[in-house]
Design the sequence.
């Protein structure tokens, strides 16, 4: 069963990456689909990261004792003001492991 | 004959230089993914996978967020159908990445298309875009620039190896250390995604999308709703689209989107 899960997930992921790189593919995504898809990265990534940051223990924790939230805010500010993905990632992870 | 040799040597030197450039560009993101890979390896063992299956996940799926979410679902005993629907949603953003890179990659030979397609992650897309954005002032020149397949391969392969080595470390560590998931390794996921999301918030509608997704994801997590990821991300996407349509932002958007049908 586990192998079936792994192989079918691998197929799905690879198809999503390769499909639109195939030159023979006649299918063209409509503008509406593309517009909808342009929201998928921010929506999905946020939906994964938000519970980690706001509820690391499974319950809502908005306080300075929540290192995830403090460092998440630092990462957001760094990413916003420096516009540098790498800097924001590495510095906020560094800070996290110092204060956690 | 001699001249041919010199030309060959020169092109191969250019290729390895591009490859090295890609390797260096992706290095910080590869380092940032190490805690995350360790988590993927140890969580896989915890979810009941064998060591081989755990490594195979990283080696053949090669999609961190999909792997971690699926592992949570496997552990919770969720069925194959739900896992695949969730995977489809998480992986759907790759359609857009591929669309944006279509004009560069689709003219390449099959083995390059398959290779770069397999390696197309958030991180590879980020460095491939980064090199474009670096010289905004001569954007016109940049457009004529040929896409560098060796740069992309260097970045993609480095990241692939890093991800798999980190997973391997997690499998080894997971067998000897208990409670690896209490070390806060999951913050690496949050930090990477924050740094990837923030620069995409260029329009009010994307901010709306992010805020809706964030709020619903947190609410669902607090109430332990299994389908939280699906609910939050689809609601966020719909909210963004609706907001854009109501405010007339949509017409601008259509022009900015990658419409790469040059053939």
Sequence:
């Amino acid at each position: 069963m586990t192998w079936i899960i792994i192989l079918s997930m691998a197929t799905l992921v690879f198809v999503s990456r390769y499909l639109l790189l195939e030159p023979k593919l006649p299918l063209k995504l409509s503008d509406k689909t593309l517009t909808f898809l342009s929201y998928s990265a921010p929506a999905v990534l946020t939906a994964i990261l938000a519970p980690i940051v706001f509820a690391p223990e499974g319950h809502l924790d908005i306080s300075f004792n929540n290192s995830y939230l403090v460092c998440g805010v630092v990462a957001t500010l760094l990413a916003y003001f420096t516009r540098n993905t790498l800097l924001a990632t590495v510095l906020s992870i560094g800070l996290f492991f110092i204060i956690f | 004959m001699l001249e041919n040799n010199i030309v060959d040597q020169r092109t191969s030197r250019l290729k390895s230089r591009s490859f090295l450039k890609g390797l260096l560009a992706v290095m910080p993101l590869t380092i940032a993914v190490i805690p995350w890979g360790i988590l993927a390896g140890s969580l896989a063992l915890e979810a009941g996978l064998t060591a081989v299956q755990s490594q195979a996940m990283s080696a053949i799926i090669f999609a961190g967020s999909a792997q971690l979410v699926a592992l949570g679902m496997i552990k919770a005993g969720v069925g194959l159908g739900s896992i695949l629907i969730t995977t489809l949603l998480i992986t759907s953003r790759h359609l857009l990445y591929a669309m944006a890179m279509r004009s560069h990659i689709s003219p390449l030979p099959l083995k390059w298309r398959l290779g770069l397609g397999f390696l197309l992650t958030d991180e590879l897309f980020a460095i491939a875009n980064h090199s474009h954005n670096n010289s905004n002032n001569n954007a016109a020149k940049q457009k004529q620039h040929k896409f560098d397949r060796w740069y992309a391969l260097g970045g993609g392969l480095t990241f692939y190896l890093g991800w798999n080595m980190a997973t391997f470390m997690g499998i080894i560590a997971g067998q000897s250390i208990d409670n690896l998931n209490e070390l806060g390794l999951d913050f690496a996921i949050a930090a990477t995604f924050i740094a990837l999301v923030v620069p995409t918030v260029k329009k009010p509608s994307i901010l709306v999308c992010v805020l809706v997704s964030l709020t619903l994801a947190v609410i669902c997590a607090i109430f332990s709703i299994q389908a939280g990821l699906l609910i939050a991300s689809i609601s966020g996407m719909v909210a963004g689209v609706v907001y854009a349509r109501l405010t007339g932002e949509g017409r601008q958007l259509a022009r900015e989107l990658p419409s790469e049908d040059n053939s």
